[in-house]
C-alpha cells in the first residue's frame, strides 16, 4: 500500500481531463436512461469478461450473478471499485464493465455507455483504469521510485538493445503485419545487433511466416493449375505470390531470408526489463497493458504506432515519454534503433526514460488511479437519468463474498477473500481528515472544469485520439 502523494487536481492533468471529457461529452446531464442500460445489457450479456454491476450504499453488486468464475481482470476491476467505495462516498450507479481485449461500441452521437480498457477513433467505449494494475501487482513490482532504478539499473549499465519478449498475440495492426511475429523473425535472422525480440511461447503451426514458406514450396512443386512445372523457382514464386501466398499477417518478401521455426526464449521477469536500455512496446490483440510497466523502469520506451489506446495515453508525448516506430513501415524500428544508438542521441534517450518513469510514478500510482475513477463516476452518475434501486434486482449479489457464499459452489464467482489481489492499494491510515477534504475539494474543481468544457465545446478529441491512425486506413 502507498499513501497519497498529491491531490487529485495534481494527478489529473489536462490531458487526462481531456480523456474524461472525450468520453462523457456524448450525453447531456440525465441523458443515459434505464432503456439505454437495458439495451447495453442485452447486447453485452454477462460472461467471464463482461459484467453488469451497480454500486448501492457503497457496496458493489453483480446485477446478474452467473455462479461461474469471472476473468481475473474483471475480478481485479470490481476489487478496485469496492476499495474505492470503502474509501470514498460514491453516488449510486449502475454500469457494464468490459475487460475483453477490444472495444465494442461504434462511434455515434449517443453511444451505449460500455466501460472498457481500450479505445480507437472509431469507438466510443468509456475508458477506465484496467484490472492489470491490481492483477499483475503493478504497484509492488514497479512503483519503487525512479531512484531505485537509477541505482539498481543505471543507464550506462543497461544493455544497449531494443528488447521485447512475450507471447505471439496478433490483432489488427498497421500495415497488416503482426509485430510480435515479424520482429521475432527479424531478430532470429540477425538483421540488426540492436534488435533483441523473441517469444516465450511458440507453436510453429500458428506462425504466419512459416505458412508463407509452406505455400511457396507447394507452389514451386506445382506452380500452375494444370500441374505443369515452370522454369525455375523464381518464376514459381512469382506465380505463387500472384495466386495468394500472402495471409492475414505475412507475405512473401517480408523477411530477408526464408522463415524457419523460432526458438522459445526463457522468461525474463518484468522487473528485469530495466536492465535493457531500449524497451519495445508491441501491440497484441489490441494495445498491450505492458506499457505501464515499461514506463516505470527508467529505460527508454519505443512504442509501436497503434490504432488502440488506454485511459492514460493522452498524458504521453512522442519523443518526450517514448520514441515512436511502426509509422512508415513494419521494419522502420531498425532505423529508429540505429538512430537512437548514436552517441549524440544518448542523453535525449536517457531523458525519455527518466520522464517516462516520473509519469508512471506520478500519474499511474494507486491514488491517481482512484482519482480517475472518482472523477469518471461523478461525471457518469450525473448523466444517469435514474440511480439503481436494489429492489429492482432481486437476484443481485454483493461481489464481496460472505463466509456462507464460499460454501455454495460458484457462489463467489471467483472473488478471493484473502491474498495479494484483495489488499487495499491506497493507505489512508496516515492521512488526516483535513488533507482528505482538500483532496475532495480538488476533485470537485476537476469535475466542474470538465463539465464546463463539455458545455462550451462539443465534439472534442483527446490528445491521443488526435495523433492516432484510424482503423479505416487498414481497409484501403
UniProtKB/TrEMBL annotation:
Example GO molecular function: transferase activity
Source organism of this protein record: Prymnesium parvum
Claim: Transferase is one of the keywords in the record: yes
Name listed for the protein in its UniProt record: Glycosyl transferase CAP10 domain-containing protein
Source organism, top-level taxon: Eukaryota
Sorted UniProt keywords: Transferase
One Pfam family from the record: Glyco_transf_90
Annotated Glycosyl transferase CAP10 domain residues: 89-388
Family: Belongs to the glycosyltransferase 90 family.
InterPro entries: CAP10, O-Glucosyltr/Glycosyltrsf_90
Species classification: Eukaryota, Haptista, Haptophyta, Prymnesiophyceae, Prymnesiales
Keyword Iron: no
Amino acid at each position: 500500500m502507498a499513501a497519497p502523494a498529491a491531490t487529485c487536481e495534481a494527478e489529473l492533468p489536462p490531458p487526462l481531463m481531456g480523456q474524461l471529457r472525450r468520453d462523457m461529452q456524448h450525453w447531456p446531464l440525465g441523458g443515459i436512461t434505464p432503456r439505454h442500460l437495458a439495451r447495453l445489457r442485452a447486447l453485452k450479456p454477462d460472461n467471464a469478461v463482461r459484467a453488469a454491476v451497480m454500486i448501492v450504499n457503497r457496496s458493489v453488486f453483480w446485477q446478474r450473478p452467473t455462479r461461474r468464475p469471472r476473468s481475473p481482470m474483471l475480478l481485479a476491476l470490481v476489487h478496485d471499485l469496492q476499495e474505492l467505495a470503502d474509501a470514498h462516498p460514491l453516488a449510486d450507479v449502475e454500469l457494464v464493465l468490459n475487460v475483453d481485449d477490444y472495444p465494442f461500441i461504434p462511434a455515434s452521437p449517443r453511444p451505449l455507455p460500455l466501460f472498457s480498457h481500450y479505445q480507437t477513433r472509431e469507438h466510443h467505449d468509456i475508458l477506465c483504469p484496467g484490472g492489470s494494475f491490481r492483477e499483475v501487482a503493478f504497484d509492488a513490482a514497479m512503483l519503487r521510485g525512479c531512484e531505485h532504478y537509477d541505482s539498481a539499473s543505471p543507464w550506462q549499465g543497461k544493455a544497449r538493445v531494443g528488447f521485447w519478449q512475450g507471447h505471439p498475440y496478433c490483432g489488427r495492426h498497421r500495415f497488416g503485419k503482426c509485430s510480435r511475429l515479424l520482429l521475432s523473425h527479424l531478430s532470429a535472422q540477425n538483421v540488426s545487433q540492436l534488435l533483441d525480440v523473441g517469444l516465450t511461447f511458440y507453436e510453429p503451426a500458428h506462425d504466419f511466416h512459416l505458412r508463407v514458406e509452406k505455400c511457396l514450396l507447394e507452389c514451386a512443386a506445382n506452380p500452375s493449375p494444370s500441374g505443369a512445372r515452370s522454369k525455375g523457382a523464381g518464376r514459381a514464386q512469382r506465380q505463387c505470390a500472384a495466386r495468394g501466398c500472402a495471409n492475414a499477417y505475412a507475405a512473401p518478401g517480408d523477411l530477408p531470408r526464408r522463415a524457419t521455426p523460432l526458438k522459445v526464449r526463457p522468461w525474463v521477469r518484468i522487473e528485469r526489463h530495466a536492465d535493457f536500455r531500449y524497451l519495445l512496446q508491441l501491440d497484441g490483440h489490441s494495445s498491450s497493458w505492458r506499457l505501464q510497466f515499461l514506463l516505470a523502469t527508467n529505460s527508454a520506451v519505443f512504442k509501436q504506432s497503434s490504432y488502440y489506446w488506454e485511459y492514460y495515453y493522452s498524458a504521453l508525448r512522442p519523443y518526450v515519454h517514448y520514441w515512436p516506430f511502426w509509422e512508415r513501415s513494419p521494419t522502420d524500428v531498425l532505423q529508429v534503433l540505429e538512430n537512437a544508438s548514436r552517441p549524440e542521441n544518448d542523453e535525449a534517450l536517457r531523458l525519455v526514460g527518466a520522464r517516462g518513469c516520473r509519469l508512471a510514478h506520478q500519474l499511474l500510482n494507486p491514488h491517481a488511479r482512484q482519482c480517475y475513477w472518482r472523477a469518471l463516476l461523478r461525471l457518469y452518475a450525473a448523466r444517469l437519468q435514474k440511480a439503481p434501486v436494489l429492489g429492482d434486482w432481486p437476484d443481485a449479489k454483493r461481489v464481496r463474498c460472505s463466509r456462507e457464499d464460499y460454501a455454495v459452489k460458484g457462489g463467489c464467482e471467483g472473488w478471493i477473500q484473502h491474498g495479494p489481489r484483495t489488499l487495499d492499494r491506497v493507505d489512508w491510515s496516515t492521512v488526516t481528515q483535513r488533507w482528505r477534504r482538500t483532496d475532495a475539494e480538488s476533485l470537485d474543481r476537476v469535475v466542474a472544469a470538465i463539465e464546463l468544457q463539455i458545455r462550451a465545446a462539443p465534439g472534442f478529441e483527446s490528445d491521443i485520439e488526435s495523433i492516432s491512425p484510424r482503423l479505416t486506413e487498414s481497409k484501403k
